[in-house]
Amino acid sequence: MVKESSNQFKKYIEKKVRETIRKYSLFTKKDKIAVAVSGGKDSTVCLYLLKKLGYDVEGITIDAVIGNYTKKNLENLKKVCKDLDIKLHVISFREEFGMSLCYIKSLLKGKGYDYSSCMICGVLKRYLLNKYSRKLKFDCLATGHNLDDEAQAFLMNVLRNDFKLAQRQGAMPGVAISKKFTKRVKPLYLIKEEEVERFSKLMKFPVNYGICPCSIDAYRRQYINFLNAFEKKHPSVKYNIIKFHETMKNNLKKQKNLKVSNCKVCKEPSSKELCKTCTIFKILATAKKECKTC
Length: 294
Ligand code: SF4
Prior knowledge:
Elements: H1 6-23, E1 32-36, H2 41-52, E2 56-63, H3 67-84, E3 88-92, H4 93-97, H5 101-110, H6 117-135, E4 140-142, H7 147-159, H8 163-168, E5 183-185, H9 193-202, H10 220-233, H11 237-251, E6 261-262, E7 269-270, H12 276-284
Parallel strand pairs: 1-2, 1-4, 2-3, 4-5
Antiparallel strand pairs: 6-7
Helix pairs in contact: 1-9, 2-9, 7-10, 7-11
Iron/sulfur cluster is lined by residues 64, 117-118, 121-122, 212, 214-215.
């Protein structure tokens, strides 16, 4: 078997991203695209590829203030964006909410809500990304989610019997309608995590390949480990999950669109009267304003 050269591999990834954008009609060259970047390999590869393919992109990052981890990520991001001549928008938990992720988690715990860091971080980051993509007038928000992320998420939704969430997944997720939602897109949807990592290493991107210190308690990690072990024995399991999901979606002919109203407090889109972010801060409203650890 002829070994694939580095250049062939890079071209193959570029082609796959081009095909994904076309197949799912993600965006066009007229669109202004925000790429949600974290300083990790996936979002950095996504940012690079969209720029390389000639799209109008800018980076947007949310700093959850996780000590040296986010400090280093931010440094890397600034370097990547400078090298690629891409504008970077930095939004910080500290400036937006007046506290770090660690502090929010500890306050919630003190109130009897033992949420994982990733759960809180995910809710707050999605909230800020949507809010700022809209404010900065982007047509869509691209994330670095890859095929592994999608397969894990689908499996999680199946095992939690969350049909609505499973239904909303995809290269262009979400069936909810609200003018306040910026369209989300996943250009790396059909690319495996190991391929993204190989690409990133070939490009020598200054990214953090380690895991976030706050992700230790992540429920999702169990799915990552399970699927990786399963894929080792049965290659293409992850791809089959994605194919299954696509078939399921295509067969749901009369998919009703979910109506979304606005949160009564912050006026951001929410399926409930009070959005998840305001729910968290409602709990925190009566908490002490000083963290003893950070
Ligand atoms: S791993 Fe979890 S806590 Fe860390 S940045 Fe990602 S979502 Fe936030």
